[in-house]
Predict the structure.
Amino acid sequence: MSYLTHLECGYCGSTFDATVLHTVCPKCGKPLLVRYDLEEAKKSLSRDDLVGRVPSLWRYRELLPVSDDQNIVSLGEGYTPLIHATRSGARLGMEKLFIKDEGLNPTGSFKARGLCMAISRAKELGADEVVIPSAGNAAGAMSAYAARAGMKAHVFMPSDVPLPFRMECAAYGADVRLIDGLITDCGREAHAQAEKNGWFDVSTLKEPYRVEGKKTMGYELAEQFNWTLPDVVIYPTGGGTGLIGMWKAFSEMQRMGWIDDKLPRMVSVQAEGCAPIPRALAAGEEFAAPWEDAHTVAAGLRVPQAIGDFLILRAIRESDGTAIAVSDEDLSTGQRAMAGEEGIFACPEGGATLAALEALLDRDKISPDETVVLFNTGTGLKYP
Ligand SMILES: *Cc1c(COP(=O)(O)O)cnc(C)c1O
């Protein structure tokens, strides 16, 4: 069913038993990553086996961490369309511009991928109460999957989060608490309450399985491009789960012989008001120092400090990619262009990828004849 073998710390390399619940590495406090027996997978699983499987991320079943099918908590997440952006492309002189539209996921964002996996695995390993700090989309996704799993959900959100996010969580029956602060403040409070009450904390990269859900974006890209990969992937980065996950997926597929050596350049986009990753990349740092006074309308990008910063920076460097900050004005323009030119009502974070593409074309960092994928990570409908 699953080739899952164990957990391994992404920083110190210590290994751990995957049959019990873990948060971060008990030795160094960094994120744990899920490992599989890819030698065995290479022998007995082929790309052709995927043909005709369910049109959701569960088509990559053996490379996902859930052991027993009974524990899968699914709402049909993943396998989102890869849209050929012909009108935006024409405006920019590009023939091969694509948008992976994650707004079509359950709960309207790609957070569904990660939380579906985290909740399925939490159920499998015996958790019955879960908690999350969230700028909005992660909370909605967790609350939905927790409802479906019959678990109690606790949500800590910044008090300035748009109303639709709060209404959504409440509708799923979550206990919603508003914190006067940023996502990092919510994280501190969620952690304290988790310790006190015995709740399982599913914060970004503080549990190992959200990355496994998000890595399926990498598998889907390969499958949708008929087992080649684009030249460039542009990804709006907060905690970095998706970028880290896709990079992990590419490496898994290479080890199974599903794709060749050519990997995309990974571009991380942040907002000018909160850009710890571009700053750390430019300074040649291994870790990204916390960003002071973080502000941007793109709530998913308002993450002043990410626990997986070194994994994000590593993926960008290994891929020969880059990181770039765009202004709120430019990301809003990108958002309107995606809607007006392609019929995709993107979230502001998604709009940021188009703004970043335009800036990188201007700077000759991307050539117009390259194949480029923009990630629209969520629907624009929740941002009034
Ligand atoms: C959470 C979020 C992001 C950032 O995702 P990470 O994988 O944590 O970097 C981007 N866009 C939207 C809409 C989000 O909800």
User: Anything to note?
Assistant: Residues 109, 111, 137-138, 204, 236-242, 300, 347, 349, 377-378 surround pyridoxal-5'-phosphate (CB under 6 Å). Residues 111-201 form a domain with the Rossmann fold fold (CATH 3.40.50.1100). The mean pLDDT is 97. The first strand starts at residue 4 and ends at 9.
